[in-house]
């Protein structure tokens, strides 16, 4: 997957997460009940994609921050 595809997937997952947080995870019509994917699984997949994106954009290296005077 390239950077554009990863960013698109992250956007889709973010939309799904926001929909679930807004109350769209499950609903019932008559005797039928529908439950969408688990919020925790969506969030874990988004974290994985962010990690993949970071690795892709930094060449697999780590970024180290330094604070002057510490």
Explain what this protein looks like in three dimensions.
This protein has helices at residues 3-24, 39-57, and strands spanning 26-29, 32-35. The protein has 70 residues and is mainly alpha-helical. It has one domain (3-57). The protein has a two-stranded antiparallel ribbon with strand order 1-2.
Provide keyphrases for this structure.
mainly alpha; single chain; 70 residues; two-stranded antiparallel ribbon; 59% helix
Tell me what portion of residues adopts beta-strand conformation. Answer: 5-15%
End-to-end distance: 39 Å
pLDDT averaged residue by residue = 85
Query: How many separate structural domains?
Result: 1
Specify the structural class: mainly alpha
- Low-confidence segments, given as residue ranges, are none
Give a quick summary of the entry:
The protein has 70 residues and is mainly alpha-helical. The longest helix has 22 residues. The model has no long low-confidence stretch (mean pLDDT 85).
Itemize the secondary structure elements and their pairings:
Elements: H1 3-24, E1 26-29, E2 32-35, H2 39-57
Antiparallel strand pairs: 1-2
Helix pairs in contact: 1-2
